[in-house]
Please model this.
Amino acid sequence: MLVIRPIEERDLNDLYVMAQGAGKGLTSLPANRELLQKKIQRARDTFHQRSAPEAGMYLFALEDTGLDRCVGISGIEARVGLEEVFYNYRLSNTVNASRELGVHVRTPTLHLTNDMTDTSEICSLLLSDTHRKGGNGLLLSRCRFMYLDDFRSHFSEKVFAEMRGMSDQDGRSPLWDALGRRFFDMDFSEADYLSGVGNKSFIAELMPKFPIYLPLLPDNARAVIGRVHDNTAPALRMLRSEGFNFNGLVDIFDGGPVVEAFVHNIRTVRESISRYVLISRKPIDLDVPADQRVMITNRSFRDFRVTTLPVGCIASDTVSVPPEVAEVLRVSSGDKVRLAPLKDGGYSPIQASGH
Amino acid sequence: MLVVRPAKRDDLAGIARLASAQQVRVSTLPGTEQRLAEKIDHSRRSLAHEPDTRGRERYLFVLVDGADGQIRGVAGIDACAGNGQPFYNYRRDALIHASHELGVSRPVDVLYPSHGLTGHTLLCSFMIDHALRETDAFELLSRARLLFIARHRSAFANHMVVEIQGVQTDRGAVPFWDSLGRHFFNMDFATADQYSSELSKTFIAELMPPNPIYVTLLSAAAQEALGQPHSLARKTSELLQREGFRTGCFIDIFDGGPVLEARTDTLKTIVSSHYRQVRVSDVQGAAHYLVAAGEGARFRCILTPLGEGLDGQVRLPAEVESQLGCGPGEPVLVAPR
Model:
């Protein structure tokens, strides 16, 4: 069985192996054991409320209970840009016009901003190659929306995600080569790594602060601004279906887009329902396709757990939960749980319960 | 004998003929005869102190062959660069991008839009008959303006500037413009250059990018051209540097050519000029001097051999005296060549 739970110290090794396999481009999870250890510690402190809510960093592990191994991870940063400075470029337009000459020129321009400061970010999604199937990626990503909604006071009203931008097989980013590199003599992958190990604001200090007029950049660099890496396209599709939209900001290194949504507008949040647990002794076939399953969460702040159930388990007030599922969710009969769709176009709990 | 004097209405055809034979356009000289006539008229009215020219006096001088009256060159002074409107340049400056934590520190070249030279006195509109380029006439025409300034010092600013034409390829392309201005003005260099001489400068304010420009983002050719003079302007530039002009941090917004700067009262011609009484006499084998006489519209300047007496008088050939139009005993301004 696959279950989402808060990350634990024992996940370090699994996490390190996954980070190594992820290669370039996953800024927030570099394959650095010491750093990962610190991240885990920060997450533990967060779940146990030993740190200020705005300093919170929530990491959820996807555990394969059969293997007793962590096979995926996803995270929420409660607030970005409070300790260090969080930079983006805003893609906007400069219009210069002369009525006298009949000239009207629109110049796309990048403005350096700190607009996402104090906003919650969903980040650090990583899934082991062995488990990229059956909606596991969706579970890892979407479980966070229910957490965001259930504990709104810990997060901003709006959440965002930075999408990985375009780079080639060798990890070269056309935007970096045309822009960042001119100011900072370093490869994109190196800059990206430094950024991941917490030096992003130092690097940003070296970046241009004045607006960048895009016509001064080569075509191949302009073309990748606001575009996602091919590997990230599915993640972007998923977020769009949740109601996330490009907010006009892009990454200062690779030009990847920032997408955002208000928590109350996120589809998983809107389409979720509450039910009371009814531990069922009747055998339930749990092995159904992803589009016939729904997510179920125990709504616990400190020990947040999520797994999936066949949609047929949902009744009008209750949800039938087999004992083994109740055990991994740490729920008993009568507890209130939350359910939400797992897949786009799959069964939604709202439909299933006749709402 | 060649004389420099203020331009008159009758000079229009001669100036136009000269301009059409030039290899490169002089951006501060209008292309159409009507505009040119206006410019000459503005100079005439500036010399006459007509009230509407106050604060935007512009003077235009011609180099005339005394023998046949042919116009062989033109040169101008704008008393206040910008002529009552902003005068645009880029100021090239360095920012240090440094990170203590990463142990990195590097200078970044930036071009800032600037009006800092507005109101300085501008030498402009220089154009000379090709046949005279390699002669003394070149120096006469250029420096005569400085004697005019010395003669009418209070009408000019304490700082002077000259825009030197920037790099242009054999095929007429301007690398700096093509890498920067073209994107914003949406026109070729020649058109923009022409507008800048003929229209109000409002269009520059409207179309020029308002933010600083990072030099490193310009094309390699544009970066190379930055602050460099056109090969044909090298001579002008060298002469002005001998006068005491220096390249500073300003460059032209259109072609990236250098802007030379100087303090008016330190220029060689002005420092070394002095008033003398004229006595007509034969002068032989003496050193050459620039000699200027007359005020305003009567201003004349000639390069001539001159004998300097101990009594504060200078001896000039009769022909020179008549060309200068100065009467006996009238003081003239002289400056060594």
User: Anything to note?
Assistant: Chain A has a mean pLDDT of 91. The CA atoms of residues 56 and 78 of chain A lie 5 Å apart.
